[in-house]
Write a structure and sequence with these properties.
The structure is a single chain. This protein has nine helices and five strands, in the order ααααββαβαβααβα. By secondary structure, the chain is of the alpha/beta class. It folds into two domains: 82 residues, Helicase, Ruva Protein, domain 3 (Orthogonal Bundle), CATH 1.10.8; 163 residues, 3-Layer(aba) Sandwich (Phosphatidylinositol Transfer Protein Sec14p). Helix 1 packs across helix 2. It is globular. It starts with a helix and ends in a 22-residue tail after the last helix.
């Protein structure tokens, strides 16, 4: 009986590997087709690797036409928003001064951990453009510091102390648009912790704009299950010390 169960188990594994190989071949073919199409529209695509094209394809369920439209829109956005190929800290002094975003450690899948303090974000008159530059700066920093072979990051958004003074619907929607449209398939998981009830008023406005793939990556964590939930994905040696782990927080702008 045990031998039969082993045979069945091995058969399932072999079938899964065969399906995975088939999916990889489909993706590779679609990457080649999409590359040929977008290179005719924009010659700068030759400098882009296949992994980036694959991320845009995956974000649009391997639909070449939709993925190509999104990708060409991204290239246009990048030329206007990051004309020098990078954003300097001198372009976002007010955002960096709020000391609200950190990056240190990796989870059990070797994905970098990004920590955000929502209550430290304070919008001010005329702040939207600088905030959008800050979001792009942050995502560029995260991507540049990905471990070899890794494409995704995980984030912990801590909303302890969040109030109406921190609410920034325009900023949230702008950040969401940049993440989903310009850095698709980069977010692996988002833990939202210490959530005050009043935050849900802002969440109800933002939620309809979150695509279905991103929604599946968002986890609201109960306070009483905070450490155990985080330890399910992150070893204690890599967990920020503010949650009982071993790592000190490192501001995103620090090397």
């Amino acid at each position: 009986m045990e031998f039969k169960n082993m045979e069945e188990s091995n058969g399932i594994i072999a079938e899964e590997k065969e399906n995975e190989t088939e999916i990889n071949e489909i993706e590779q073919n679609k990457v080649r087709l999409m590359r040929a199409f977008v290179e005719r529209e924009d010659s700068s695509v030759k400098e882009v690797d296949d992994l980036m094209i694959r991320r845009f394809l995956r974000a649009r369920e391997l639909d070449i036409e939709k993925a190509s439209t999104l990708f060409l829109k991204y290239l246009s956005w990048r030329r206007s928003s990051i004309p020098n190929g990078f954003i300097s800290p001198s372009e976002i002094p007010n955002e960096l001064a709020q000391n609200k975003l950190f990056m240190q450690g990796v989870d059990k899948h070797n994905r970098p951990i990004v920590m955000v303090y929502g209550a430290r974000h304070k919008p001010y008159k005329g702040s939207l453009e600088e905030f959008k530059r800050f979001v792009a700066y942050t995502l560029e920093r995260i991507c540049a510091r990905m471990p070899a072979g890794q494409e995704k990051f995980v984030s912990i958004a801590d909303l302890k102390g969040w109030g109406y003074a921190n609410s920034d619907i325009r900023g949230y929607l702008a950040a969401l648009s940049i993440l989903q449209d310009c850095y698709p398939e980069r977010l692996g998981k988002l833990f939202i912790v210490h959530v005050p009830y009043i935050f849900m008023t802002a969440w109800k406005v933002v939620y309809p704009f979150i695509d279905s793939k991103t929604k599946r990556k968002i986890i609201f964590v109960e306070n009483k299950k905070l450490k155990s939930t985080l330890l399910g994905d992150i070893d204690e040696s890599q967990l920020p010390d503010v949650y009982g782990g071993k790592l000190s927080l490192v501001p995103i702008q620090d090397d």
